Amino acid sequence: MKKIIYVDNAATTKLDNDAFEAMKPYLLDEYGNASQPYSFSRTSRKALKKSREVIAECINAKPTEIYFTSGGTESDNWAVKNTFFGGRKKSIITSEIEHHAILHSTKAIEQIGCNVVYLKPTREGLIIPEELSKFVTKETGFVSIMLANNEIGTIQPIQELAQMAHQVGALFHTDAVQAVGHIHVDVQDLGIDMLSASAHKFNGPKGIGFLYIKEGTPIVPYINGGAQEASLRAGTENVASIVGMAYALKKNCQNIDNNKRKINKLEKEFIRLLKEAGKIEFIKNGGKNTLSGNISLSFKNQDGEAMLHRLDLKGICVSTGSACDSHNTNISHVLQAIHLNKEYAKGTIRISLGKDNTIEEIKIVAEEIIKIVQIS
Q1: How buried is residue 63: exposed, middle or buried, by Cβ count under 10 Å (0-12/13-18/19+)?
Q2: What residues contact 330, with CB distance under 8 A and at least 6 apart?
Q3: DSSP state of 376
Q4: Prediction pTM value
């Protein structure tokens, strides 16, 4: 079997082995429904309680502020649509470079009467407070700006943006799917009302995530049915995945600084190899303050999709941007929003490094990219 070099960790990450072991008892032996009152379900209930406490501690929240969902997309949908269905029929503000889970949600409620404003980023992909100040008013009920961009890695000034939203009484949500488990996230310090996260982005299982909802924030149920999640998110709890998510998040948070140092070193070497190859014109997108290892590169007069497929033939997994939009060969909405020159934009690929990548892998990836670009 061909050896795979996986450098698309922004799309998904490998399930942590220890997290998987922590999940197994709740798949095979302790499979009781946590909502049932009998003793067989006691272990599942305790596991839910403990997992909620672990996750809350990782982001400096209260356990009662953590609500389990099926992942980042559901969490984003819940946060956005709560504004409209919860009776807060005021204007919503978001940005042009959000994940489609946010953008498609806002489009959906626009169709039924909600007013939505889309902020423009700088060429580095930043949503600056000055841009928000142009549009935030007393009619603004909700603002959603992602913590770190999934395509170009830009980290946003969330604390300042949230303060501005709160000055007019608006709720502030951040899509932190790409950031949680990779940078230090403190919901108290950020001053936010809601935060979305997804386990498979930090070495947890797929199909599970959470929405942080600050105590006292007005919220309506997104999924109606049973009394799970304080009667706000119905459905039998996915105990095994919740346990795996909590384990993976805690492990990543405990090693954030070490992982960041390693990944920064790999990124620096990778960029050095490309620059020293000569006759390669490229731009690194996202500005100076980006997620470690989230490397969006635009090569002049290249075709990013063709590069992806040629790298795939060599067993190297990269992305042309958002994995959720891989079927769309047009220039992504993020690259359009930052006004990237078309002669570079079409040649964009994203290499996203993880804690398990090695220097040997990075050298191979750089070598193959150099070959592709130099012979084109």
Answers
A1: middle
A2: none
A3: -
A4: 0.95
Annotated catalytic residue, options 58, 253, 317, 324: 324
Residue 4 per-residue DSSP state: P
| Beta carbons of 211 and 205 less than 8 angstroms apart | no
69 membership: H or E segment, kind and range: strand 66-69
DSSP symbols for 198-252: EGGGTTS-TT-EEEEE-TT-----SB-SSSHHHHTB-S---HHHHHHHHHHHHHH
pLDDT per position as a tens digit, 250-278? 999 999 999 999 999 999 999 999 999 98
Angle value at C-alpha 309, between 304 and 312, nearest 5 degrees: 125
Pick from 173, 205, 211: nearest CA to 55: 211
Quick one: pLDDT at residue 322?
A: 47
How do residues 185-199 score in pLDDT, each as one tens digit? Answer: 999 999 999 999 999
Helix (H, G, I), strand (E, B) or coil at 354: coil
Does residue 114 carry a catalytic annotation?
A: no
DSSP one-letter code for 135: T
Rounded Cα distance between 336 and 322, Å, is 13
- Give yes or no for residue 323 having a pLDDT over 50: no
The SS3 assignment for 25 reads: helix
Q: Are 335 and 349 in contact (CB under 8 A)?
A: no
Question: Is the CB of residue 125 less than 8 Å from the CB of residue 98?
Answer: no
Mean pLDDT of the 309-330 span = 77
Q: Where are the alpha helices (DSSP H) in 99-221?
A: 100-110, 129-133, 158-167, 187-190
The band of 321, judged by pLDDT with boundaries at 50, 70 and 90, is low
pLDDT tens for residues 209-252? 999 999 999 999 999 999 999 999 999 999 999 999 999 999 99
